[in-house]
Amino acid sequence: MVAVVVALLIGGGLLAGCGAGPGSMGSSAGAVGTPGPTGRVRVVAAENFWGDIAAQLGGPDVVVRSIISDPNADPHLYESDAADAAAVARADVVIDNGAGYDDFMSRLLGTGASSVREVVSVQKILGATGPDVNPHFWYDIPRIPTVAGAIEAALVAADPVHRADYQANLERFDLSLRPIDEQIATIRARYHDAPVAYTERVPGYLLGDAGLTVATPVGFAAAVEDGTEPNPADTRAMDSLITNRRVRVLLYNTQTVSAVTEQVRALARRADVPVVGVSETLPSGASSYQAWQLDQITALVAALRGPT
């Protein structure tokens, strides 16, 4: 039923009039070397999920380019190039995640700085500080409207003529998040404090919002995120969680795959612990940010529920 609701919200005209979707987040959206169409706001997003949201908020009045858009690549390893620098230099609005996730954006923003360019830093908008802040803000669904509001404000500042359109698109976008919020509330009500594990903290905010308990050793997840080998103690602790079935679900980052994470996934399958794949960037087959997140959380609900 939830899938039907979100399909109606997204496909049935709620977000009608939106501009480039995830399928046009690559170089075809605001191609480097070609000025943006006359009268359209040029938006550059560091990641394609923020780019998708900007495209929905901007509709036909914006053209969006997302720098990180390959669903098969590890975003942590991305290196920007001259084409990215040129796109950022021309942009009217730039969106970066922050918190060390896309440090290359700081360098790009420092090249050809523009006094009229609007910059939306998600980390700053959310006030996320601290030495080890989780940078995966797009999994914190209850705070996505705050980010969307900041993007909408930047669009208005760049293009006040279409203020009413941007405001209407923001209202529609916020409404389209309701099915995801409902699924989060379902998990919180039915499975509160249920133990789960992840290979790294990509879905950390989502699990916290849903009231689930993450049992993964902190050192294990940090090592995987940093691309290093977890220490033997953390590896043994993680393996024990899985083989002894002390967690209900394993959430597996499908974009950061290593021998260590593949071993954990294999252990989960042998132990009959459900595995739910999560990705860091918007998959190529996803119709929107909302559809992507709803698919993942629906899979999580099914895994927690178990066989029927």
Write the layout of secondary structure elements.
Elements: H1 2-11, E1 41-47, H2 48-58, E2 62-68, H3 82-90, E3 93-96, H4 104-109, E4 118-121, H5 122-126, H6 144-158, H7 163-176, H8 178-190, E5 195-198, H9 204-209, E6 213-214, H10 218-226, H11 232-243, E7 250-253, H12 259-270, E8 275-278, H13 289-305
Helix pairs in contact: 1-8, 1-13, 2-6, 2-7, 6-7, 8-13, 11-12
In a few lines, what is going on in this structure?
With 308 residues, the chain is α/β, with parallel strands linked by helices. Helix content is 45%, strand content 12%.
Protein described:
The chain has 308 residues and is an alpha/beta fold. The chain has 2 domains: 2-176, Nitrogenase molybdenum iron protein domain (Rossmann fold), CATH 3.40.50; 180-305, Rossmann fold, CATH 3.40.50. Helix content is 45%, strand content 12%. The radius of gyration is 20 Å and the shape is globular.
List keywords for this structure.
13 helices, Rossmann fold, four-stranded parallel sheet, 308 residues, alpha/beta, 45% helix, single chain
Largest sheet: 4 strands, parallel
Q: In CATH terms, what is the fold-level topology of the largest domain?
A: Rossmann fold
- Relative helix content: 40-55%
Quickly count the domains: 2
Calculate the mean pLDDT score and round it.
88
Strand order of the largest sheet: 2-1-3-4
* Percent in strands: 5-15%
- Termini Cα gap: 17 Å
SSE run: HEHEHEHEHHHHEHEHHEHEH
Question: In terms of structural class, how would the helical and strand content be classed?
Answer: alpha/beta
CATH C-level category of the largest domain: Alpha Beta
Uncertain regions spanning at least 5 consecutive residues: 1-36
